[in-house]
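Invent a record, attention on tokens:
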Amino acid sequence: MIRLRWVNLQKAVEVENYALAAELRDEINKLEAESLAASANALVYENIQYAFRLGQKGRHKVFVYSGVICGMDPVCCISSSLRESACIDKLTRGSNQPFYQVPEENLLAPDGPNKGRFDHPYLSFLFYGMDAAGDFIPIKQLREKYNKPRHEVPPIDEDA
């Protein structure tokens, strides 16, 4: 898009249409600034440290239901109307925190290994199975979508 604008700018200068050239110059400057800002945001989001891993079990602090992490966003990505109805901005960390369908501050990790039964119809589509800590092992497509390495606690060899 910027390259096309540069070509148009050069043509406007060649035909001495300086008003159009000035408009195109300003538009190019705006596009370049937006591109730079988007790149900076992408870098920040790429380096976000998440408290939970794909496949990790968690529990909601307030409503006490359990879940498995199967996706994450670096910040709240829902519309402003949904954000308002869910009172996201009233949270301690607001909307500027990782979200796993639930804000990070509302999730608790289990204190230790949790090998208890966990049923959900999508588990077999998103995870290979359970590791020794009771967390689920995400399939390759899920790990690639979120650019996360495979995390698996190996079984403890009790014969050793």
Remarks:
- Helices lie at 2-14, 18-46, 80-85, 123-126, 140-145.
- The mean pLDDT is 87.
- The two ends are 63 Å apart (CA to CA).
- Strands lie at 57-60, 66-68, 107-108, 127-130, 136-138.
